[in-house]
């Protein structure tokens, strides 16, 4: 079935038509410098297809919230919801087939990446029964799939880049059609841009971006400079959903307006005569207003920054020395580990703890340690990650000191931090001969609501030769830990989640 929408007109005459069904299978990349008309193009595409296909818009600047007034899109304020809530919203919008604008205006760069990743992850992980077609538009895609590391944390960058890669590389089978727009191709991750088969290239000035745009369109390098001459609102189109040869297209008019339209020049009103203007601006203040305004005293000279640093270093050294604990006996260290385990267990009792980032849990842990009088530097981050994995597995302090469990932790050491907790959860069940943890339990330990993602983590552990999974004739799953001879009892993987603490 062919469903065509008109995005404008071809230079020289005739409508510029886009095959929407083909777009859903082949994805679209829009590129153009600031002011080239990218947002206008996306708005035209969204308006023309709003009644034909479900839409999800990742909007970092709040440009597209006005679509809600005319087309009924649900606007979600990303600043007001947690990542867990946004992941659930991504799943539910596909279940209920609602068009959504995720407004990330006013959210800092790292939170934008985390919350967009959570929302896209929810859309990606929805059950197969809800894989309806969705047009997923991501404006300023270089923010969410950067080509190089920036000022944000590696954890946020990996999560966002992974979500964008899933959208563009694996989203088609799940009904997700990615439409990404960027100011500069050089700033966009190549593995994300390379998955698009349709292109709309706008005005571009930098040589590296012009050359890359020409390569994507199959043009010769000497033709690349033509991108500098494009007027605002004109794009060179190519792709199976657009046309088989590069064609210049002028984007048509839109019915809704952006809230962040740029300033316009207006003529000055006739100015008063100079003497009247002087009187308006420099008229002495009334006495009562002068009294109300405190006199501004001259600012003191800035202190010597080197002296400040030296004083701070001296005070920090004194404070560290004061907090340095006395030498510990083995009994003291055992008691400290018991207290650490009790604090971690208390933190993990919170239902949302499994879905909070590790650095947030770490800060909570340090605060609780200070309250307990255990100092500011009770445990560094690598030690905390290991202790957290053990706590998520539900191991008490006494068992954790045993030689058997120490062997399990040595096997877990080479695994990635986020996989260590899952392995130790299975190892604990195998050591005790308890039923194999369900998918829901594994998902909670991993920090996700997605059962599919939990199953993929189990497959990864099996690929790493640390566990072996078996399924009996009744569909019950069991897991054996390689090298230790431990094995869980068989259980239904679709059973309800179990508490791990």
Automatic annotation (TrEMBL):
Positions of the AAA+ ATPase domain: 24-214
- Keywords, A to Z? ATP-binding, Nucleotide-binding
Q: Name one GO molecular function term.
A: ATP binding
Q: Where is this region: Disordered?
A: 311-334
Which interval of the chain is the signal sequence?
none
Q: What Pfam families does the record tag this protein with?
A: DUF87
Give the protein name, as stated in the record: ATP-binding protein
What is the species listed in this Swiss-Prot or TrEMBL entry? Gluconacetobacter azotocaptans
